[in-house]
Amino acid sequence: MSAPGGFLDYGPDAIIMAGLTGSNWRLADYVARGGYSALRKILTERIPPTTVIGEVKRSALRGRGGAGFPTGLKWSFMPQQYQGDKYLVCNSDEGEPGTFKDRDILRYNPHVLIEGMAIAAYAMGCGRGYNYIHGEIWETYERAEEAVAEAYAAGFLGTDILGSGFSFLLHNHHGYGAYICGEETALLESLEGKKGQPRFKPPFPASFGLYGKPTTINNTETFAAVPWIINHGGEAFLNLGRPNNGGTKLFSVSGDVARPGNFEVPLGTPFATLLDMAGGMRDGRKLKACIPGGSSMPVLPGDVMMQTDMDYDSIAKAGSMLGSGAVIVMNDTRCMVKSLLRLSYFYYEESCGQCTPCREGTGWLWRVVDRIEHGQGRADDIDLLLSVSDNIAGRTICALGDAAALPVKSFIRHFRDEFQHHIDHRQCLVPAYI
Amino acid sequence: MTMLSPEALKKIDREVAKYPPGHRQSAVMSALAIAQDEKGWLAPETMDFVARYLGMPPVAVYEVATFYAMYNLAPTGRHKVTVCTNLPCALQGATRAAAQLKERLGIGFGETTPDGAITLREGECMGACGDAPVLLVDNKRMCSSMTPDRLDALVDELKAVGGADGK
Question: In this predicted complex, what is the ipTM?
Answer without folding.
Answer: 0.95
